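S1.2 Input.
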Amino acid sequence: MGLSYLDYLPISKITIFEKQAMDLQVIRSDQVPLGKPLPCNVYDRDGNLLLKAGAVVNSTRQLDELRDNGLFIPKRDKAAPLPPVLKESPFVLLDPMPAQVERLYGRMSVEPDFAGRVSAISKNIQKACELDREACVSWIFLANDMRYVIGHPIHTAILCELVATQLDWPAEERLVVLNAALTMNIAQLLVQDKLHRQAQKLDPAQRAQINEHCSQAIDMLQKYQVTDALWLNAVLQHHERMDGSGYPGALTSEAISREARLLAVADVYAALVTEHAHRRAFAANAALKEIYLLRGKQLDAQMTETLIKVVGVFPPGCYVRLANGEIAVVTRNGSAPTTPIVYSFVNPRGQAINVYSKRECVHPQFAIKEVLTKSKVDVTLNNRAALWGYKA
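S1.3 Output.
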């Protein structure tokens, strides 16, 4: 028996694609061309008309709202299908980013335009997320062969961009949070690198260093000519918690800036899904449950619920075990939150599959039985970009 959406996350019930709508075929959001007339009608999962042929979808925000209802076209319209729209690859922007951040951190004290360099990286994250939101989420789970102090701020910034976009924040306001995400830990780079590999509990001296890193980061940023008050406040307050249990100021609720509240949610989720020496990474669905339980207590409720919506129960890039015993990677959203598009790359005997097999999780034999962390998968996933429709 397959698991339901409510088995993974305690959110309101969802609409399931029913038998009478089976004359429709699901399409991916990247098959809807932005700014161009649609060649055929588009329906939701219940068969209700969403857009007539000739209508134009002008923004990713509109596309996200449509996708939440499911995107389907009639099978009889195969003569005029929506073509795949292969835009510039987001991986071209994201894959070089760890090296860019490494260089930035190494040159902080001598970089003449530190704020400008940070903003340039943040703008590339914004562009990548605009190109393909699902591919960017996958990067958080799959591109983790880098030092934690480098990968974690990039992962956090990607999540901030996706959540803030969903909340309709203007690009310049989103940029501030991304800049803060990339610089929130600059005062503890060496300490954080060591702690990530440390299996023992923190000693008092290490705890004191951590408690001081927010204030120390502000001093460093000001030294490097960062003057944006929203940026500085977000860094200073990113460990504050809604219930006053955070640091350094034990602030509560609205006393914490909007940017810092978003940064806190993204920071916590990104840390949960990452492997540490002192604990295993949380599976994607388990991490969502963790932050869901913290919403309205330690974490901002709206920010948390929006991140849950953006990432999903089965985020692109997470590994899953199917009912037939195969291990697959999630690539795209499907007709419902519990039935994503996946590609199997490990057979039931634990052997690598040379040609990855696309699986529709709506079929019982391909239903998702378990979400896996990377540590539970021995086979390396190759040619990652191709799974999202891009050149390697």
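S1.4 Remarks. Confidence is low (pLDDT under 50) at residues 1-22, 77-83.
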